[in-house]
């Protein structure tokens, strides 16, 4: 299988932004501001329950750094003795008949369902309130007849009277017999236990996690003309600037009877902070295909899932998804910044060579540079490259001063090139600047404070 070496997160999700943004000079600091944003994810599913009615559900995931936490009050009862901070939130959903109006002023649609979900999250430390790897997730569901609808979300946080509304979303509930298009539910895992399907929703919106396999549950239309057709699921990788009709095929699998299951009576539950879909497996249920996707083999990129039927040129269902590397180093969001950061380990001449030519040529030379140094060339992930750019992030976070960004300080450069020292000793000599001694297995670096505001210069290396 053709392999594009790891290409840094699609080189790079933010480098394919609009043309005006491309013309502006991108710096590490501007990338940091754009990427250091709290995340929330919202998705929806429609699953038939009968010939006239379907289960509709909105599910969501909110990272802790998205939630405003408060310090506990002395009179509060906490779930554990160590709990120090809490965040109370309420998610409300209202479903209306018809498509979403063009403006809120024109809204006069009939409300057919309204419900809310509420929870209080407790954490033990201030650092935990800023975590983007911890999250709360939930769902709100109802049963709807066939027709076109739209829904609105309102999120209230920390007992605030202000509500933050999401954009309106239109959706359709189709009669199962009239369903003409396949739809995709993204799962982190699924299993069949006797006559029961158990599936854990991925719940990252249109995202899957880079380097982690996932599964799909695909609704197969009941149209008679498809019953004897061979169905194939194709996965296309979409490069920078490519639209959804293009892309390089990266994976293909024929849907056989081994991949299909008939289900009915779907239900959602929340177990251990996971959203679980269960359904009965029965011959008179609705046809779904369940497919495992070996995502560990694929780049951190944008993809198109397309379900094709034998003899038909047009797909019978597709979905665009993005691979998401949750802790991707900041520099890798932009090709020019990533190349510029090579200055700590390559000569000026080599840096000019890599940085010359068109964007495509620079991208190719950059890929080749890291492919030659990949410690595990048979895998998609390049550990050495990831470690190098993580060190740049560490240097910026820990060694930045009023005078210089952390990666341009002597301590930052040493950390980038040599990594974390085995031991750090700080000395406070009388009538002399503060010194730090970094010890490595084969070298000792001595730094001396220059201003008293965190600036250290290298004065000795042995």
Overall description:
With 462 residues, the chain is mostly beta strands. It has a domain at 330-461. The chain contains 8 helices and 24 strands. The strands form 5 sheets. Strands 3, 4, 5, 7, 8 and 9 form a 6-stranded antiparallel beta sheet that branches. A 6-stranded antiparallel beta barrel has the order 10-11-17-16-18-13. A hairpin with a 7-residue loop joins strand 19 (302-309) and strand 20. Helix 7 (383-399) runs antiparallel to helix 8 (410-418). The two termini are 48 Å apart. Mean pLDDT is 86; it is low at 1-23.
Computed CA radius of gyration, to the nearest angstrom:
26 Å
Beta-strand residue percentage: 35-45%
Percent of residues in helices: 10-25%
Mean pLDDT: 86
Q: Give the N-terminus to C-terminus distance in angstroms.
A: 48 Å
Total helical segments:
8
Largest sheet: 6 strands, antiparallel
Helix vs. strand class: mainly beta
Ranges where pLDDT stays below 50 over 5 or more residues in a row are 1-23
The coarse overall form would be globular
What is the number of beta strands? Answer: 24
What's the SSE blueprint?
Elements: H1 19-23, H2 28-35, E1 40-48, E2 53-63, E3 70-71, E4 85-97, E5 111-123, H3 126-129, E6 135-145, E7 147-157, E8 163-165, E9 169-173, E10 183-193, E11 196-201, E12 207-209, E13 214-219, E14 231-238, E15 248-255, E16 260-271, E17 274-281, E18 286-293, E19 302-309, E20 317-324, H4 335-340, H5 348-354, H6 359-371, H7 383-399, H8 410-418, E21 423-427, E22 435-440, E23 443-449, E24 456-461
Parallel strand pairs: 12-20
Antiparallel strand pairs: 1-2, 2-6, 3-4, 4-5, 4-7, 7-8, 7-9, 10-11, 10-13, 11-17, 13-18, 14-15, 14-19, 16-17, 16-18, 19-20, 21-22, 22-23, 23-24
Helix pairs in contact: 7-8
